Amino acid sequence: MPSSPGPRPANAVLLAAVGLFALAACGTGSGPEHVASAPTASAARPGPFGPRTLASQPRELSSKPIAVGAGVVLTLPDERSSLVAYDPATGAQRWKSPVKSGYAEQAWPVGGDFIVSWGNQSPEGNDQSTVGDFVARLDGRTGIPVWATRISEWPSRGDDSLSFRPRTGIVLVSDQSRTTALDLESGRTRWKQTDDVLTADDFDAGDFGGNYALVYKQLDSYADTGILMRVNPSKGKALWAVALGKAYGTTLYNMRDHVVVSRRGRGGVGIVMFLDGATGKRVSVIHGAVRAHDDNIVVVSSKTGVAAYDQSGHKRWEAAGLVIEDGRRAFSDGKTVYLLTGREKQGTLSLVGLDAASGKQVASLTHQTEAELLGTVNGFLVAESPYGRDGLIFAGKPEHA
């Protein structure tokens, strides 16, 4: 099932525009073929839409949720030796992953499957090819690997040094020394980029216009200066590069024909830049921080409240007075924007649902604990509890569920 990378030929492309990267094409073996279409930007996000009205209390699920999709909530038990998929409506177990290794605390839905990673330190018998870090595509119905590709012969031992995320037709993987592009359907390596490139964990951007990916090279981790590139995911060739100045945190978002860059300043004050996707040129700048996004809007919080902007930076609506604490993320499934408002120290947190088109409040649940909103699936909103890292399942009211 796991496969090892093949020999690596000489560098194929030099990015002279930025003078930073050497790219090399190479191939690997892979598992059985799996007929599935490559994800669009929206297909890679959780769905379908969640409840428009909420029941009085969430239901607990005694495992950490790490992804929603394929009609299930994918969770990671404390022992981290397997993944478990649950039915969000009943809490019944759908399947358990067959591979016994240390799984990473992240996963991404893609079509009806999941992209996951695991690290194995012990060989299966005398088979040393089973040792190392692997990125795999799991069948969303069974949990059985469609393909599994070995990224490194030495496991990262759960230090989160390996990051990965699906793009159009590929999975970008970064292990702090190189970036590898795996074919989404077969798991074969398309190209490698030898440099310290951040590609997945800190960035919400995926496909650009269905054909391109975003890569950010951090030049100074303390000042967070770096270079943002629009890259052809099939070949790894950079089409444009933009230098980003000093900040204290950078997150990227894709908005069809534009790229949105959220940069944090001192004291949590930040700016949001809207860039033209074809050229990388700046279109508009607003103050605040991105909290959520979908295919149509970017939700930004500031000192005055919460507002939604289109891909060019034009304001769609504003919910004045809503307060979101620094570092808290919201979630939009394209129909409803869910966010935790108020201040935790004052005990005034509320889970609020806003209509994504108008900003009108459509759901509210008061006196909630701090939780990380994860996504919606089959009419349920899924979050991670801060206590014991259990899952929280928010259902709709009976008459609307």
Major sheet description? 6 strands, mixed
Spans of at least 5 consecutive residues with low confidence: 1-47, 199-209
Q: Strand tally, please?
A: 36
Mean pLDDT: 78
Description:
The structure is a single chain. This protein is 0% helix and 46% strand. The protein contains no helices and 36 strands. It has strands spanning 2-3, 13-14, 22-24, 59-61, 64-69, 72-76, 84-86, 93-96, 102-103, 108-110, 113-120, 132-139, 145-152, 163-166, 170-174, 179-183, 189-193, 207-208, 212-220, 225-231, 238-244, 250-255, 258-264, 270-276, 282-287, 289-293, 298-302, 305-309, 315-320, 331-332, 336-341, 350-355, 361-366, 372-377, 380-384, 391-394. The strands form 8 sheets. Strands 1, 9, 10, 11, 12 and 13 form a 6-stranded mixed beta sheet that branches. Strands 2-3-17-16-15-14 form a 6-stranded antiparallel beta sheet, with no helix packed on it. It has a 4-stranded antiparallel beta sheet with strand order 4-36-35-34, with no helix packed on it. A hairpin with a 3-residue loop joins strand 18 and strand 19.
Task: Please give a quick description of this structure.
The protein is mainly beta. Helix content is 0%, strand content 46%.
Question: How does the SSE layout of this entry go?
Answer:
Elements lengths: L1 E2 L9 E2 L7 E3 L34 E3 L2 E6 L2 E5 L7 E3 L6 E4 L5 E2 L4 E3 L2 E8 L11 E8 L5 E8 L10 E4 L3 E5 L4 E5 L5 E5 L13 E2 L3 E9 L4 E7 L6 E7 L5 E6 L2 E7 L5 E7 L5 E6 L1 E5 L4 E5 L2 E5 L5 E6 L10 E2 L3 E6 L8 E6 L5 E6 L5 E6 L2 E5 L6 E4 L7
Parallel strand pairs: 1-13
Antiparallel strand pairs: 2-3, 3-17, 4-36, 5-6, 6-7, 7-8, 9-11, 10-11, 11-12, 12-13, 14-15, 15-16, 16-17, 18-19, 19-20, 20-21, 22-23, 23-24, 24-25, 26-27, 27-28, 28-29, 30-31, 31-32, 32-33, 34-35, 35-36
